[in-house]
Structure to design on (318 residues):
């Protein structure tokens, strides 16, 4: 039996601004939250309640923002939490500056209370002594590349359950765990200023989602077949991946409400173009598509003014 050893750093302030990868495990690794079927996690009501309490963290702790990437596995939970700077003008009220340990402890307490209620009222499977293990695993996320790799791991964790170290009968070792074990130095020395940025605000995220919906609809009308949406890789995320005829199309979607800061397509900088080429190479390798596949890079520029959408598909944008 083996477990992740939390690289908790002596003297490190876990209340400071940053991004943290959190894993919380069920006591004795009992599978209480559902089961894996054909590579997908099928949550029971207890598992659904765990997700709900994780999302409640933002209401309880003003500096905390939870990433959209989280997963409840049969006997553990993975999530990413961002702690914003306590000096921000919109960070007020109780629990300001609460350390990571207090945040996770509240999550464990509230989810345990609901589970106990579920045992009494709905016949959920009983647990002995404690629902969760006393401690938890946390990892200080150093940069955006690490953030994206962790997001990819979370997204595909159910598909790799047989390699999961929390699986009571693992059949191997996940490369992700080897990678995570390489982080032994102080994050203050290796992390960029402030680490990965907090996730976009709900309004900004809603704007991006709206733009991607419009882009997908417009592409379909032009004969594109959407293959992937928000495809996550260790290097970043591809908005849309499509096919038009025999050509694989990597699509970057840019949405703006005005031209105050330039047109949407102008936001696709040279650095962004280079990054998209690397992401495309990663996708081709993962899908084993070979080097002879025709690949094109399109940009969908969307301008939303006065609730009217102008959608422009720019083929072979770079």
């Amino acid at each position: 039996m083996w477990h992740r050893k939390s690289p908790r750093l002596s003297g490190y302030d876990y209340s400071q601004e940053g991004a943290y990868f959190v894993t919380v495990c069920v006591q004795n690794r009992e599978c209480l939250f559902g089961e894996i079927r054909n590579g997908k996690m099928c949550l029971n009501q207890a598992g659904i309640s765990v997700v709900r309490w994780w999302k409640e963290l933002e209401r309880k702790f003003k500096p905390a923002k939870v990433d959209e990437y989280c997963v409840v596995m049969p006997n553990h939970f993975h999530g990413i939490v961002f702690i914003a700077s306590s000096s921000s003008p919109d960070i007020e009220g109780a629990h300001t500056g609460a350390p990571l340990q207090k945040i996770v402890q509240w999550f464990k307490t509230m989810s345990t209370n609901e589970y106990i209620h579920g045992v009494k009222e709905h016949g959920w499977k009983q647990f002995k002594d404690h629902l969760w293990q006393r401690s938890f695993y946390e990892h200080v996320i150093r940069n955006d590349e690490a953030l994206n790799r962790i997001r990819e791991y979370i997204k595909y964790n159910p598909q790799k359950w047989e390699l999961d170290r929390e699986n009571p009968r693992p059949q191997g070792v996940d490369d992700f765990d080897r990678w995570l074990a390489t982080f032994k130095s102080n994050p203050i020395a290796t992390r960029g200023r402030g680490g990965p940025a907090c996730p976009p605000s709900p309004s900004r995220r809603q704007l991006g989602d709206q733009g991607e919906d419009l882009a997908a609809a417009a592409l379909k009308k032009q004969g594109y077949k959407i293959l992937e949406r928000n495809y996550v890789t260790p290097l970043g995320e591809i908005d849309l991946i499509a096919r038009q005829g025999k050509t694989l199309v990597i699509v970057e979607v840019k949405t703006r409400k005005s031209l105050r800061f330039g047109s949407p397509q102008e936001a696709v900088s040279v650095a962004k173009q280079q990054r998209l080429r690397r992401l495309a190479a990663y996708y081709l390798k993962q899908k084993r598509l070979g080097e002879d596949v025709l690949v094109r890079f399109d940009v969908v520029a969307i301008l939303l003014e006065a609730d009217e959408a102008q959608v422009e598909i720019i083929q072979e944008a770079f």
